[in-house]
Amino acid sequence: MFYQLPPVGNPVCLSHGDASESSLRDIFHPYIPEYYASGTAALAASIVAAIRLKRIADPEVILPAYGCPDLVSAVVFAGAKPVLVDLEPDRPWLDTNQLSARLNTHTVAIVAVSLFGIPERMEALRQVSDRHGALLIEDSAQAFPGEPGGGFWRGDLVVLSFGRGKPVSLLGGGAVLFRDRELGGQLAEVTDCAAGAARLRARAAIYNLMISPWLYWIPQGLPFLHLGETRFVPLPVIAPMEPLARRLLASNIYKYQEDTANTRLRLAAMLNVTGVEPGQLLDLSSACQVPDHVRLLRYPLLAEPAQRDRCLRDLRRAGLGPSYMYPASLPNVTGLGQLLSGQGDFPVAEDFASRILTLPTHRRVTDVDIDKMRQILRSCVH
Asked: What is 263-380's CATH number?
């Protein structure tokens, strides 16, 4: 009863050691970082840059029809219209045929989301964006390189998030990475509103304690924390990242990249021996041919809705940290129906939402946990 793995959650490192802000230049090279208070603010700043570059009335931004409602928050704040595109069948990727059909002279940007940490097909999207003169914004809020070295990102602008439950977490903060200084100069300006360092340290200390599998049941039982909820929250302002968070960022990146316990590969090995037929449980990591060195924020599976619900119920009872991720396509998220009305149907995104199940990949997942997952998945999908 008391053992509950959180679905996501690596601890926050509160010591910066020898790491400094100058270290970040090496980490992000050849990109240059600009810091914001959240990943949503960073995405909004990127969309502002796209609008300023194209300088047209009634700008539009392409988004996947399945994803975080914060995508819509950022687009609306920047003053653009969110235009949805359905997913490829059984993949967390934009449908390139529908994408091409949705692009027009008002399109200023395509937001390519690396959902769960699975990379979008940036080269294919680059060809489409270049043909239409749209900026390619890589939303890497759920993806971060698991080892040093360049080549991980491909977007004109790259959006990062350091919020709660992200690969590198500081409980808040975000960044935009750019290579072209002229493009970087078009990013939205920030509105200053700093929070105290003591508050961040206190929050992080409590967070580190509460994500223990033996204590996570406490915050999980507090409804005002809205853990696991998918809600549309308008972005109020583009604010800067807290100074302390910036000082701690490099050490937290190093901590993340030094962790060699690749839970994703252990989960993949487990799924290979579950005895489940491929048609019963689709391993998205394998289906998308994700390279072994890429780390996932969550391990995504697709199952038929009734089987998915049984798996989630039994995994939850065992305290193994499963989740639905986002339980609905964006038009079906509370508060977004009217905002996204009139864009047609998105059957693949709706099907994806009804079948998705994720398993935790953070460092606290043990071999015992994985063996229990294997047994439950085998029993639920037969």
From this structure: 3.90.1150.10
